Amino acid sequence: MGKRLTLALLAILVAFGLATPFPAPAQKGPIKIGFLAPVTGGAAQVGKDMVNGLSMWLEENNHTIAGRKVELIVEDTQGQPNTALTKLRKLVESDGVQVLAGGLFAHVGYALAPKVDEYRVPMLYPVMAGDDLTQRKPARWVVRNGWTSSQPSHPFGEYAARTLGYKKIVTIGIDYAFGWEVVGGFQKTFEENGGQIIQKLWPPLGTTDFAPYLSQIRRDADAVFALMVAASSLRFPKQYENAGLKARLPLLGGGTTFDEFVLPSLGDEAIGGMSPLIYSAAIDTPINKRFVAEYRRRYGKVPSYYSETCYTTGKWIDQAARAINGDVEDREKFLAALRKVEITDAPRGPIKLDEYGNPVQNIYIRKVEKKDGELWNTVVHTYPAVSQFWKYKPEEFLKQPVYDRNFPPCRYC
Amino acid sequence: MTAEFWVLQTFNGLSYGALLFLLAGGLSLIFGMMRIVNMTHGSYYLLGGYVALTVIGSSGQYALGLLGAAAAIAMIGLGEWNAFLQRLAGQELGQVLTTMGFALIFQDLALVIWGGDPQTIPIPDVLDGSLRLGTLFFPVYRIFIIAVAAAVATVLWLVLERTRVGAMIRATVDDPEMARGVGINVRGISMAVFALGAVLASVAGVVAGGFVGVYPGADFEILPYAFVVVIVGGMGSLKGALVGSLLVGLLDNFGKALFPELSYFTLFAPMAAILAVRPTGLFGRA
Amino acid sequence: MPRRPRASTPLLLGLVVLALAAGAPFLSSFSLALLTQALILAILAMSLDVILGYLGLASLGHAAYLGLGAYAVGILTTRYGAGFWTVLGAGVLLAAAAAALFGLVALRAVGVYFLMITLALGMVVWGLAHRWVTLTQGDNGISGVPRPDPGLPWSVASSLGFFYLSLAAFVLAFAVLAVVVRSPFGKTLVGIRESESRMRTLGYHVWLHKYIGFVIAGAVGGFAGVFWAYYNGFVSPADLELATSVEILLMVALGGRGTLAGPALGALVIVLLENFVSVYTHRWILILGAVYIGTIVYAPEGILGAVRHWTKGDRAWASG
Q1: What's this model's pTM, rounded to 2 decimal places?
Q2: Which of the 8 DSSP states describes residue A100?
């Protein structure tokens, strides 16, 4: 039996080796885009929005970039860093893609970046927003065409203190890097403009019942700043209202707290919620209106920022590839071109990269309102051309540590 | 820490415990009777929520949603039990892997059928809002959950302790061989109990759908909690499931509020301690 | 119950290892990465099999040891710049210590109760990884785990180098476990699986044997965890989830429990399945679910069990 078993094992190995040949040098074949997104698991809907966004651009443009055919290869990360790493390997080593894009969750972004640098294949991050990827731990081959977590928070902190006139705010944020950065950015500018953060609560990712946290909220606050993601965005406003808080303390949030992908599932409890983000489906420009209408026609729902940034990713790759006459095989040249891209007519507004590689773009202060029976993030104010460093000098800003649970420290707690 | 804090947190803990009781009560009965480790129990919870969502969406009736979910999940559970689980008696590994397989299949089917958007089950207006006592707010829906759990516990207790069927169930839990010997239809009783467990899980799913929502991943998120309740309370004991649920609900709540960094530790470590002293749980018999 | 093949196992293992070592330079680096992954998970599955196959106790908490080994790497390398051998020792010791503690609680039970208690203990470790943010960084996970520096004659910085390191680890783990299960101690474990009371009557200290087996399994699980963290360059609570523990059980059951080659084969098949099926369909979770059920229904003794029946010409099995 030993022999047969050996044979069986060897057969498996051989089959395995054959199944994944060396990546062929894809000279002038199609341009292969490797796209990472959670297609299964808890964040599957976000993944779908991401894939839809990029697919829509490709369909509108005949699956052609700089005169070359495009092949889109979507791989499922399940929202898990280790799976994302394996799939990244597959896309680069087995499929031989010329450019990578996608990914969800800041920690996945941090896990992928060193590997991307090792492979020296440019990767666009339309969604993953970990601050340090374009600040203290930049990755050469990562081109961020999305945002940094704290980017919308900076103007919003100022807005909350000056325009809304709040003095004391309690923050409640999901306890991981993205939450820390969104809350940290808000705290910094809010306090610099005279406000005080008087309490910081950190429920873990995947919290179902927020009651233990809601019942701790201090009563002497003027408002609450909440940072929710994915399914927690759905349940938080309702629980907030039922705990008797909505009537007393206005609810502010990070952009994902009132995300377009969750708005259709929310009820009136969300109305009045204010948040900042790089996009709102309600932006009142002809370009965005066309984008929203077309997206709805194709996929039956309002686009989220995940859809918009991934749609713009298609445009981004196209512009860079055109600039070098489609010669994406010259990776250095391609990377340089990707970094030089400037888009004036994205649905979210004009975008260009700062010298650290993060988009300078509009930040929209949005308020949830009901129009024709649907919830929309109405834009109440626009901060044009906001950089990840806000009004600070980059060198000064980078001297402070990256935002985390305890930075900025809670001086008024 | 004010008195208000303790009152509110206790209330929160109780209401979460009540939800856990709905989920774990059935699991405990199934354990007690058939010694089946059912990883699909979380899926019944998830699918129950989704079915109710669809039924309520088309009929507008909350009660119909509950009924529809219960009926659908009972069928699914019975099908699974008939086709696979009843043959795996005494094979823990086989049970774990088979039911895990089903859990994965249900998870993916739910994604295909209902999409991945997190959704909330619309609740009747009477259950919305909160009761106000002085400066404290008590969400009506949480009171409703406690009431449902109390009603279910009472009915289960009455059935188990006061009826002929209950006596047969208890006999089967105690000693299936003997029960078969005295002419009890052990297979029929087992089927009924398995269906009941699945139905309770689906009810928990519908009820939970009103305040934590229905979303992909809910199945595996809630599953460990259900197991923990059953382990702490003791398998097969209704009293154990009730005490275990409340204990887990309270520990979870106070752990999160008082020791955020160790919140799961404060939940699972006392449990391990209980098991170290009483391997069959608080009210379980070996 | 399945018999272990006698003298053919070392030969077989030698051949497979040689084939792997010789063939590796010709494989694409993605194939290499998957094989590396399979080798590390094979170590983990083999360690679980000491409890499951030889002792007959199904554990739902084995991912805890993978996690402890992995977190030892993540924390010690990124915070204290610890080197490979320090970390390896720490990871194995940590996992062994945890197993020594858990064994005290878990081994009081058998069957379904053992399953549930190990589940609970696994959740304790997961809970710490998930929430003890100051130590573990919580859901962010720990990124930036450096390449290992074992000071071996070859560099382990490349995929190929790391593959050889993992292969060496696999051979070592296989050898250690083979010695354990073939020793009188291992035979006693099987005896306990078959009949605990008989072994007790024969004068064996049953509990102590189970306990030592349990600790060995934990230690080897931690050993796998160390390489897992180095392989990914990243550690996160996801590695400790209940689903991971169940998946390890599947690897053992699929390959064939009560052998060492079986779990290794199971690990290989699952890794290939997850990575190749997902290329062709996003519905691969459905297929994985079917594999779980199919294993129990069609190959209750795993692939090796099936092969054994087949080589014996046991037609009855094929039809039943």
Answers
A1: 0.89
A2: E
Contact A223, A160 (CB under 8 A): yes
pLDDT on residue B119: 87
Tokens of B265: 């530790």
Query: How remote is the C-alpha of C157 from its chain's centroid?
Result: 24
First and final CA of chain A: distance in angstroms?
71
Average pLDDT over residues A24-44: 80
Per the rule left: phi > 0, alpha: psi between -120 and 50, beta: everything else, C138 is left
- Give C15-37 pLDDT, tens digit per residue: 888 998 998 888 888 889 899 99
Q: Please name which of A329, A375, A359 lies closest in space to residue A122, comparing C-alpha atoms.
A: A329
Q: Which ranges of chain C does DSSP label H, i.e. alpha helix?
A: 8-23, 29-49, 63-80, 84-106, 111-131, 133-136, 159-182, 184-194, 196-201, 206-232, 242-255, 261-280, 284-298, 302-311, 315-319
Dig out the tokens for C243 from the structure.
Answer: 């689903």
Mean pLDDT of the region A3-9: 47
Tokens of B120: 């909330």
- Using a CB–CB cutoff of 8 Å, tell me whether A114 touches chain C: yes
Q: Calculate the CA C75 to chain-centre distance.
A: 22
Distances (CA, A) of A368 to A153, A255, A274, A302: 17, 11, 6, 14
**Cβ-Cβ contacts under 8 Å, B31 against chain C:** 112
| Cα–Cα distance measured from residue B50 to residue B214, given in angstroms and rounded to the nearest whole number | 7
Residue pair A215/A180 in contact by the 8 Å Cβ criterion: no
Q: Is the pLDDT of residue B219 over 50?
A: yes
Give dist(CA B145, CA C163) in Å, integer: 54
> Beta strand pairing status for A359-371 and A274-277?
antiparallel
Each residue of A306-333: b (16+ CB within 10 Å) or e?
Answer: bbbbbbbbbbbbbbbbebbeeebeeeee
Across the interface, do A243 and B111 touch by the CB < 8 Å criterion? Answer: no
Write the pLDDT tens digit of every residue in A259-315.
998 898 888 999 999 999 999 999 999 999 999 999 999 999 999 999 999 999 999
Length, in residues, of chain A? 413
**B211–A238 C-beta distance less than 8 A:** yes
Chain A residues inside the 8 Å CB shell of B9: 211-212, 215
Nearest Cβ partner for A21 among C23, C28, C144: C28
CB contacts of A267 in chain B (<8 Å) are: 120, 122
What is residue A17's three-state secondary structure?
A: helix
Q: Are the C-beta atoms of residues A105 and A37 closer than 8 Å to each other?
A: no
Tell me what ipTM this predicted complex has: 0.87
User: Cβ(B244)–Cβ(B233) under 8 Å?
Assistant: yes
Rounded to a whole number of angstroms, the CA Rg of chain B reads 19
- Residue C244's closest chain B neighbor by CA? B100
Give B89's contacts (C-beta < 8 A, 6+ positions apart).
B34, B35, B36
Q: What is the DSSP letter of C314?
A: -
- Quick: pLDDT tens for B79-122: 999 888 888 888 888 999 999 999 999 999 998 999 888 888 98
Confidence of residue A324 (pLDDT cuts 50, 70, 90): very high
- For residue C150, count other CB atoms closer than 10 A to its CB: 14
What are the tokens at A255? Answer: 């952009």
Bridge partners of A143? A124
In residues, how long is chain B?
A: 286
How many C-beta neighbours within 10 Å does residue B259 have?
Answer: 12
In what helix (H) or strand (E) does residue A121 lie, and over which residues does it extend? none
CA distance B179 to A124: 66
The Cα A275–Cα A273 span in angstroms is 7
Task: For chain C, give the number of residues.
Answer: 320
Handedness of CA A226, C138, C238, B247 (dihedral sign): negative
Which of B39, B264, B278, B282 is most worth mutating to test chain C (most C CB atoms within 10 A of its CB)? B264
